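Provenance and format

Records in this collection were gathered into a single text stream. Each protein contributes a sequence line and a token line. The two records reproduced below are adjacent in the stream.
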Amino acid sequence: MNPAKVRKTYLQFFKQEDHAIIPSAPLVPENDPTTLFTGSGMQPLVPYLLGAKHPLGTKLVNSQKCFRAEDIEEVGDNRHTTFFEMLGNWSLGEYFKEDQLSWVFLLLVDELGLDPRRLYVTVFSGDEKTGIAKDKDSIAIWKKLFLEKGIRAGDVDMQTEERAAELGMGEARIFAFGAKKNWWSRSGVPENMPPGEPGGPDSEIFYEFDMVEHNSVFGKHCHPNCDCGRFMEIGNSVFMEYKKTEDGGFKKLSQQNVDFGGGLERIAAAVANNPDVFCTPLLSGIVEKIERLSGKKYKSKDTVSFRIIADHIRGVMFMIADGVLPSNTERGYFARRLIRRSVRHADILGIKQGKLANLVFPLVQEYGEVYPEVAETKEKIMREIRDEEEKFRVTLKNGLEEFKRVALGKMISGKQAFDLYQSYGMPLDITLELAQERGMAVDQEEFKKLFNEHRNLSRTASSGMFKGGLADHSEETTKLHTVHHLLLATLQQVLGKDVRQRGSNITSERLRMDFSFDRKLTQEELVCVENLVNEKIVQELEVVHKEMPKEKAEQMGAEMEFGAKYGSVVSVYIVQDKHGEVFSKEFCGGPHVASTKGMGIFKIIKEEAVSAGVRRIRGKLT
């Protein structure tokens, strides 16, 4: 069963269990300022996990494209990748542990054909710091599921990986670990979670590759969380039932949620009983292309270079398809880094200059049907890779000359390494490789300190530029900001009160609003929205600014900005006619015009989907 069939089988299985199939969100998060990339299937669904109503119901399933920048340095082994697809299913208060664990076990064993004797699971052992109890329910459910397949599954409380390596597995099949391994939130362990963040205990599923022998370098005994390669995690059911409170404690969410994530590459590897994800059809096509371009074999001393190039070109392909172009800041930095690392390893393999872009062809062939954006932007992707390689070869030449100049003694300082990065475009990993070849060390701590300072300045400048979604406080931007308030109120009148703002960006040229809605607007609805906004502009409504307690603003029904945190006293802008009849009221820091008189005519430029249950309108004043 190839990965495409695994993906289809997964989606159809949960569709038959009354789950609505939702599309993958973009790699660039629309409404999550906490992270640069979509790194999990649950990320776009956080509002619904916290209680908002999803337009497609309470049972959802999809395959989400993900990118995790923190895994760049891990790429090179048989299972780590930066880009991956996460097969996910969610219950928004509909079902919980019994149904979830039963379904995923049935899917893996009966539908995908995995041998249940090769499956091992972990559960949450409890957390003394928070007082959250051990997940005994999941242990009981797993025991029953294994017994139905004729397997008696013992359980053992390991707490930590170190203890597991010391004790060994014995006859157990169910292992309890602490919060570091079996608690899930976007922020990690409970103490790292900010107030308002959802999280909960999880239960991971591991597949055992019996052809892999334990390597004692990773501990005395093997266990499911061991890194020796014998076990691979293929799925994780998160029981998201808690929310961090302002005082640092935890309380139950209004609904008990399920958030399952299973890496498509890893599940496909388990189905093939091959522990190398780069041998699945998702990546084997590009690996074979690298073999042809380099004249070398994948299974050789150069395997790591093959894996780095295959992973990085796939990752950058999806990034560029979603609008992320190589640059020195924010997301663009990672696109640039992936390409430049690929160039470095292409040189190691002897691939001719300018040929890296050709590796896009087998990837488009594999992914183009499921993700048409990569096929539609193929030429652009190839052009960006060629251009970046050409630029890098110029900077690499200059950087190598500068490296030779500073490569004296036994240590390259963090400042020298950062200057090589900042001024010559030399990624740290290339500096590390060059230093290692000369028997030198690099002060990585100082480099990271300087790099983080540089990144924070960049983010501060970026957030300042678009504070409150505004590019500036010019007259035209201020007019469009007021129109933005009129547009939200109009959408609620035309489409229903459940419409909520999910993001905004306003310049002097145009406004952009993201809002919750589950379908494309009809032409009649677009005309109605446009006309109503213009009707309110012509009525010369006044815009009143008031400061008031947050509770009072909430009582009067003022719209709140999605994801924003407010103090006890808030700023509210009210748009009303001369008789005091209110059309719009929103929490907002301004600025706004005093009246809609003479603002111009509002025109909708475009209406489109941006993610599951979220639409986008672009408009301007003429």
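Adjacent record:
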Amino acid sequence: MGKFFTIILLLLSSFALQAQVFSPDLQCVRNDTLYWENAVNGCGTFNSYDIFFSTEASGPFTLLSEVADESQTDFYHMNTGGIFHYYIAANYDCPGEMVILSDTLDNLQAPVAIIASASVEGSDVELTWELSDAPEVVGYIIFRETSIGVVPVDTVFGDNLFYLDENAAADEGVESYFVLSLDDCGGTSVFDEEHQTIYLETEAENCNDLINLSWTPYIGWPAGVATYEIWLSTNGDAPNLVEEVNGDVLAYDFPAPADFNEYCFYIAARENSGDNTSNSNLSCEVVDIIQPIRDYGIKNISVREDNSVVVDWVWRSTADLVEYSLNRGDSPDDLLTILTENPTSPLTFENTYLDSDIDPSLNSIYYSVGTIDGCDTIANSATSSTIFLEANALSGNANLITWTPLDIENSIVDFYEIFWLQDGVSTLIGTVEGTESKFLYENLELDPSESVICYYIVANARVILFDESEQFILSRSNEVCVQQNSRVFAPNAFAPEGINREFRAVVLYEDAVDFEMEIYDRYGQQIFTSEDVDEGWDGRINGQGAPQGVYVYHIRITQTNGRTVDKQGNVLLLR
């Protein structure tokens, strides 16, 4: 490699510098031939161009040849090989004048050009390289690797160390470059290390709330890459540094992007043991994340007067659902799908379904809402159920009403209202706190012909929804009808010829009962039987008046609910 030396030979008079003699401009040494460009000198007679050489750049130099032809511009040095350094001194008959020597060049090729970085700007590539200290280097040739091989794309002259390749396609893939040093004779250096740009690709994982980044390594720096920086611009804002990863990492997952934002990324490589950097192409994603059904739930379940069930639910309207289902069962662990729909976006916040194919008077009915989003993710809401109401008739004109508590997620019952339903008219008969699940209705005042009483309850509650809002709901139970306990009354005496002429039982709540009455004499013989509660014994046996005395009666009634009442006793017949 040539090292620049300027040797000034001072030919001084004893008093002052008189003039200068310019030597030829030694341009290059190629294949042991020196090429130069002659200088113009106006003093004295031309004697020769003196060529000096040495095996060391610092000398000592020895006269190799004297070229006597002033127009000659090259010289061939026949040698046995090795590295030689040359310079030329012009020899003119100009006594006392200073001779300006040529540059000192060697017979090696032009030194390689060291690329500093290849960085992407849009689809273009910005190349920078280091300045060569070899005097024979007058420019640089830019080469790019293409599908037909490595081809020159441009030449840069002088001390310019920057080139913008506007014909690159660095936003479509990796671009590879070489820079060769160029001497004044058209000779070039050998190819040095190839430099490859970083190519970044991004892909939104709409089902995982991620943007995947992957990039090719930056190639060319001898010590490699120290770190890669991930830079992000959101919706056109100024880029911000998101993360810095080691130089052997070529992928990064950007978490939880916001829906419908545009995210533009680029990668910045930083040289290991150096200050150079290189940027990748810009890769952008407009995010359309498949929004799962993160927030939803049953808001209310209520039984209507016609014994159908109304199910109300809410969900976030931005969810990307492809299918939902309503599931129903007699227990929370055994639900079957009763409805499947393909909703359209955006979803309706509040939704309702009327279920007429179930009997909530038999037991609690359980419901849940199932969903499938655009990523085939299956989700189910919490299971909720109807309020199941039961009632039992007690002795002493009382009814005990019990129910299952309101079972809706995030609900708070303030109080329950108990209603008596009679001839289609509802009457509020009591209110209990939301923590209660029973009510004793005492001191019934009923018409003796009314043996069946119907009830229902209403839960007055609040539901806390997923958006922290609170909504008031009314959840109605099934209707339950309870048959009152029939009671039997019988006189202890009667007089067929007197005022009370017939022995007849009095049955309280007598409707919907089976009745049997039997009369026996003192010998145990059955003398009378009746299956009509309105038919009594008139004191006759086979059409003849029975004698005065004590007789035994046995009365049995069977209610429609299966309850039986037996009454036995003695009755005195008076004559």
